Amino acid sequence: MAAMADVIEDDEKERVRVLIVDDDALVRAGLSMILSAASDIVVVGEAVDGAEVPGAVSKHEPDVVLMDIRMPRVDGLAATESLRARSGAPEVLVLTTFDADEFVLRALRAGASGFLLKDTPPAEILRAVRRVAAGEAMLSPTVTRRLIAHVAAPAPPSRARAADRLAQLSERERDVALALAHGRSNAEIASDLHMSVATVKAHVSRLLIKLELNNRVQVAILVHDAGLV
């Protein structure tokens, strides 16, 4: 019996572990059903408010958190900011009803790896979870432009500060940063810039360290703030 439990535990560790955070029971049930149908994903827990996120993450150790934005006590924005400030934090995919929600952009700036509309088709939800678990972003170029346009454009001093931060990059790193801002995947960047995927990943890692950012979405936003896209 103990051996069987060990096999189940090892199998779960090999799959993408997901924590669902939403105050709507029907949304949680729907997402859980969609995710549980995939052989490479397991729902390890649920939470009904942002206030429950720290404890749930410590208990369940998810790879990805599906985070609702609008919740009654602690919203998804505050929960994302707090969570992503932790060492070894899981990736965050924010959930929203509106793709022009200004809070989405704030969540992305706080370190979320992308966002999903609540009416996203099941296959796309599964693809998004797999993609962010693999360290990629779930944010299309069109969505990025719409989000950036939804809020006030950066004031000249802010644009200058963003440009100054990017100025520390090498020419190749700058090319990779621009590609990230266009929503390109590692494989696409490798093809466009004639380098291996492993080299692209190395460049992305150096970008994050140099720019002191959490993920590639924040790099994309910084490039937009600098007025380069």
TrEMBL record:
Any one GO molecular function term: DNA binding
Keyword Ion transport set for record: no
Gene3D superfamilies: 3.40.50.2300
Any one of the GO BP annotations: phosphorelay signal transduction system
Domain HTH luxR-type: 162-227
InterPro entries in alphabetical order: CheY-like_superfamily, NreC/VraR/RcsB-like_REC, Sig_transdc_resp-reg_C-effctor, Sig_transdc_resp-reg_receiver, Tscrpt_reg_LuxR_C, WalR-like
The keyword Phosphoprotein belongs to this UniProt entry's keyword annotation: yes
Residues making up the signal peptide according to the UniProt record: none
Pfam families linked: GerE (PF00196), Response_reg (PF00072)
Keywords tagged on the record: DNA-binding, Phosphoprotein, Transcription, Transcription regulation
Domain Response regulatory: 17-133
Positions where 4-aspartylphosphate occurs in the chain: D68
Protein known as: LuxR family two component transcriptional regulator
Species for this entry: Paractinoplanes brasiliensis
